[in-house]
Amino acid sequence: MSKGAGQMFAALALAVLTAACSDSSEEKTEIILSAAASLGQPLGQIRADFEREYPKLRLTIHLGSSGALQKQIEQGAPADLFWSAGVAQMDALEKKGLLLDGTRRDAAGNELVLVLPKAEESDVITFKSLGEAKVQKIAVGTPETVPAGQYAQQTLETLNVWDSVKSRAVWTKDVTQVLTYVERGDVQAGIVYRSDAQGSDKVRVVATAPEGSHQPIIYPLAGIKATRHPDAVRETIRYLTGPHAQEILQKHGFKKAEDR
Hints:
The chain has helices at about 5-25, 40-55, 65-75, 85-95, 145-160, 160-165, 175-185, 195-200, 230-240, 245-250, and strands at about 30-35, 55-65, 80-85, 105-110, 110-115, 140, 170, 190-195, 205-210, 220-225. The chain is α/β, with parallel strands linked by helices.
């Protein structure tokens, strides 16, 4: 081999080795967070800030209805953390021993509101007025899997209009779909969280569910026992329940929730 060829080979070998070392040093640990669809907007900003503060971690977010995510975790779907919009879904995982010990936190709260398309004129101004037949289509999360739908059912049952409303309900897979239907004018009204309504300029809030008409809206967060990264999961929970993440949540219409 000529001297020039030898030098070129050495330089190439060094470049490959340097690239390999660089790739190794930049390898990130992926943390998968299965989260209620209503958390989508604030989690976008929270994730970006989190990854700047923890450059060795990558936060992957899977959004969906809390009930569907619960079932996926029970069936072994990859998840390191679960952030539910309802207590019942987290309770179900806890009873099955699927949560990482000592990690459960009540990480946010919310309010249930009635929304209409912004441009539509209507005299529907209360949850109770949904019982009147003139409201033909009302978007509601499917109560069996969507916590917002469960809270809606509780509220409407308290007001004695549930039987009337459910015959005209358009059932949805999550609360985000409720909002989309109202925004497009596919329905005359919808029941969503205040945080969802606050993030849309195409709907207007006409009423808040009466106090005591439904169970408190609490968003519990916990690590999943099957995680391969328990220390990183605990650190992520500390961040998500810390002041910066909580400030972002409150800017998006969420409320503070105290740990139980």
